[in-house]
Structures are given as structure tokens and as C-alpha cells.
Recover the amino acids of this structure.
């Protein structure tokens, strides 16, 4: 997976977060569709963290291979 695809996936996850924030009813966040939106936000955040870890590991691997 190249860097461009990784960045594109991070941007896609950020878009999903923005969309799910609009679905959350902040008066009753744990009822109805709001809980599904919150789960979607958390899943997108997890995906971003995993992608950032992947990008960092690829940078480390590249430096190790150079030496």
C-alpha cells in the first residue's frame, strides 16, 4: 500500500466522522440512531490510528532497509 492510498483512506475516515457527527442527537446521544453514529465515529477513529501506525511502521522499515 503506497502513501497516497493511506492518506486517501485517512481522509475517507475523516469524512465518515464528519457525516456521523451530523447524525448524533446531542440531547440523547445513547438512544436510537445516535448510538450507531457514535459507534461509526469510534470505528473511524480506530481506522485512522491504525493507518497512522502503518504509515509510521513503513517509514521505520524504510530507514532500517537503508542501513
Amino acid at each position: 500500500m503506497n502513501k497516497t492510498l493511506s492518506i486517501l483512506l485517512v481522509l475517507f475516515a475523516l469524512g465518515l466522522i464528519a457525516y456521523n457527527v451530523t447524525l448524533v442527537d446531542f440531547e440523547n446521544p445513547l438512544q436510537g440512531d445516535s448510538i450507531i453514529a457514535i459507534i461509526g465515529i469510534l470505528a473511524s477513529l480506530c481506522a485512522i490510528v491504525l493507518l497512522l501506525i502503518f504509515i509510521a511502521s513503513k517509514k521505520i522499515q524504510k530507514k532500517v532497509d537503508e542501513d
Notes: The chain has a mean pLDDT of 94.
